[in-house]
Structures are given as structure tokens and as C-alpha cells.
Amino acid sequence: MNTTQIINKLYFKKRQKAIARYANHAERIQRLVLRKLVQKASGTQWGVEHQYGSVDSYEQFVRLVPVNTYEELKGYIQRMREGERDVLWPGQVRWYAKSSGTTNDKSKFIPVSLDGLKKIHYLGGRDCVSCYLAINPKSNILRGKSLILGGSHTPNLNTPKSLVGDLSAILIENVPKAVNLTRVPKKEIALLSDFEKKRDLIARTAMQKNITNISGVPSWMLSVLHRVLEIKGVDCIDKVWPNLEIFFHGGVAFSPYREQYRDIIHLPNMHYMETYNASEGFFGIQNDLNDPAMLLMIDYHVFYEFCPMEDLDDNGYPKSDAHIVPLWEAEVGKNYAMIISTSCGLWRYLIGDTIKFTQKNPYKFVITGRTKHFINAFGEELIVDNAEKGMLQACIATGAQVKEYTAAPIFMDKNAKCRHQWVVEFAKMPGNVEEFALILDRSLQAINSDYEAKRYKNITLQPLEIITAREGLFDDWLRSKGKLGGQHKIPRLCNGRQYIDELIEMNHAVQS
């Protein structure tokens, strides 16, 4: 029995048994989570205002608490950032994860309480290892180091009573000391704000270690791995880390990057495991390497509800008559917007992500997109899940590899002609970009019946257009926003042209 197997038996087996209970006790577990959250928050300002002391069931909770977006909670969060105690959650919340903004604000500040750190985020990190060891009990993952990428703090957004940063930076800052013995890079490097400097230092530090597992956003991790190869002067990661066996990835869909990882990692026992860890909470882990769906983690300090996509209005908010359901009433195969209540003080909070359950008992799901990251300019209802699948088919058919992309509508001209426009940065060019566009277009029609209907005989939507981006365009765009590295992501789809017009202008400026 090796070191990993001994630690698994002593430390992870009990947790693996608890996760196995998800299959038969989902409703009981989730009702218990809600009761604990409501009871603990009953003395807070929010709890008093919403009569938490009298809540004794989910049904009563729903009657007393409305669905909220950041706008509804913003005033409470601002008071918390100024040091006020017992507002949305007991005690003082010192840390806030900076997330993408709202219509009215450049950034959102998501509270990260100590309970949230322990009972959501760190529990999720531990369960990644638990689930992986359950799948691969002969693993040697614990005999080496973990390369974990993270973001940075944002001191200019701090207040005298609160600190702000990317979620990953907050996790690194507060991680138990024992964990620091097994991870690289050191905190001083991990929290650097200059991504290019940080990437170089991470590469130079990590390439000297016995790395057995890596964790991070696929796009940024790929950039670090390429820097390792460049410094070492080798063509594959196998020659640097021969004991590497697992990449815990999340943040963006992995499908556009899969072939690029296979190009530089040839290890026969290399595995890829998706996680769903957002600023608002840790929600899912892939627990079967042959099934892309993730297991919904239902015994953390997160209570789940789901709003059918058809019950959202044009702004992505639930309609007044929306049929919002708890987990135990959710249906397989239906697109839902996710609503959460957590020990970070987010109550019936519309997170903005959309998911679809692939099975019950236990509940497993795939991320299908964002409530606001879609294109529905002409009734086509194109979501990120459609785009990812269409891109994959076009890449398979043409041998291309896509590094980054975004898409938006070109609105109707005087002849009622309109189309979707895609800016695509290829890691490996297709032999023919027009063929790639044709296959992508046909794939989207096969995947999405609304898109197919609008494309019928080119009556409404014309064939999509692809603009080939120069190398580094998307990184340059993120850099111009001060968002290069960390957890920042390219908006894949947008119903307006604010992102794509800036990218096209930057692309044209250099090419011309």
C-alpha cells in the first residue's frame, strides 16, 4: 500500500461514504442544509427582516424571501464592506471576491465568510481529491506537489474594513498552512498581479518540482505549461513532470482546449477532471472520468433552487409567475438558471449560470451557459453549450484547434439581412476557414432547433461569418481591461456588440 492509499484510507474514505449518500437522500440533505443556514442567520439584519425565526420549512422560506440579484443585495454588501456586523451572515465578513460587473457597476463584490471558506470552498477542494481517489485508488497523486494557479488581490478596491481579490487569491491567502507544504508556487508568487511576470516565475519554480497534479483555468494553465516547455527546451510536459496524472480544471469549458493539452501531454495515465467553482460557491465535481457531467455537491453550505429558462424575462431575471423548484423537484434534460442560498450571505441569489441535469439519484449536471451570455437577437436562443458543441464538431472535421472565441449578432440592415459574427483565435488553423464556418453553422442548426428555424433558406439569419483573430488578440484585449490572468474569462456569446466591436477594432489596428 503506497502513501496515497494509506492517506486515502485514513483521511478520505469517510468523506467518500458521505458523498455516496447523495444517491438516496438528496431531499433530506438539502432540507437540512436550508434549516441550518436559516437558523444561523436568524439574528442577522436580513434574517430579522425576513422573519427567519419563524421559518420551519422550504415552502415558508420561499414565501418570505424573494429571488435576488446583486442589485437587491448591493446595499447590504456595501454596509458589510464598511465593517458592519451581522448583516447578511453572522459576524464580520472581511473578504470579498471581485466578480464581473452588473449593468450599473464595473464589479460585483461577493462576500466570502469564514464559514463559506470552510464549508463550501475548501470542502470542495478536498472533495476533488476524494472523488479522484475514489475513481483511481492506486493513484500516486499525494506523493508529489500540486501546481495551483490563482488570481491576485485588488488593493485599490479595499476599504478600511474589507479586502478584495479574485476568489482564488482569497483561497490562497487563507489556506491552512499544511496545504502550503504540498503546493506550488509560494504565496508571494501566486498572488502577483502581473500575469506575465507571474507566469514566468511559476514556470521556473514548478519545473524543478515533482508535480503530480495541476489545478486552474484551462487557458491560463496552458499558457504556463507552454512557458515551462519554452524554458526547458522540450516538446512535451512528460519530460518535465513524468509523474503528472490529473488536471483539475474549471472556469471555462474544456472542449476547446482538450486537443492542445493532448499535444503537449502524452502521459498514458493523464486524466482531466472538471470542477464548478465560482466566486459564489463550489457546486460540482466530475466523479466519473467517462461522464462529462458533474456531481452536484449537496451537503455543503449551499441550498439550491432552479428556474426554468423559459421562465426568465428578456433581462435574464425570473418572471413574476416563474415556476422555481428545489432540487428534489428538478427535471432531467431541462435548462435551468441556478439560484443559491449560502453561508456567505447570498439568499435566493440568481448566480447567472445555467445548467441541465443529466440524471437524478445522484444529481449530475452539465453547465449550459449564462442567463445573460447568449444570443437571442432574432429568436435563435443560442446558448454557450450550443456554441461549444458546434465548435468541437468544426474542429474535429477540419483538424483545427481554437484558442479563444466570441460571437455576437450583426443586426438587420435595410434589406432585413442579419447574421452572427464570430471572432476566432486559432491555436491551429483549419485548412479552410470557410469550411470551418460552414461546419460550425450546420452543427449549430443540428444542435439548436430555434437557430435552425431562423437559418431556414437564409430567410432570417444569413450564414455566420468568421473573422480570424491575430495571435494574442484576446490576451491583449483582456490586458487592456486589466484582466489578464487569474479567473478572468472571455465572454463567449453576447446579445450586443460591445465586446466584439472592441476586439475587431484591435484586430484591424494591428493587421493594417
Question: Please, could you describe this protein's structure?
Answer:
This protein is α/β, with parallel strands linked by helices and 512 residues long. The chain folds into two domains: 1-368, Rossmann fold (3-Layer(aba) Sandwich); 374-511, GMP Synthetase, Chain A, domain 3 (2-Layer Sandwich), CATH 3.30.300. It is 37% helix and 21% strand. Strands 5-3-6-7-8-9-10-15-14-13-11-12 form a twelve-stranded mixed sheet, sandwiched between helices. The longest helix has 22 residues, at 114-135. The protein starts with a helix and ends with a helix.
Amount of beta strand: 15-25%
Q: Output the strand order for the largest sheet.
A: 5-3-6-7-8-9-10-15-14-13-11-12
Q: How many DSSP H or I helices?
A: 17
Task: Please report the distance between the alpha carbons of the first and last residues.
Answer: 63 Å
Spans of at least 5 consecutive residues with low confidence: none
Q: What is the count of distinct domains?
A: 2
Helix content: 25-40%
CATH architecture of the largest domain: 3-Layer(aba) Sandwich
CATH classification class of the largest domain: Alpha Beta
Instruction: Quote the CATH topology of the largest domain.
Output: Rossmann fold
Radius of gyration: 23 Å
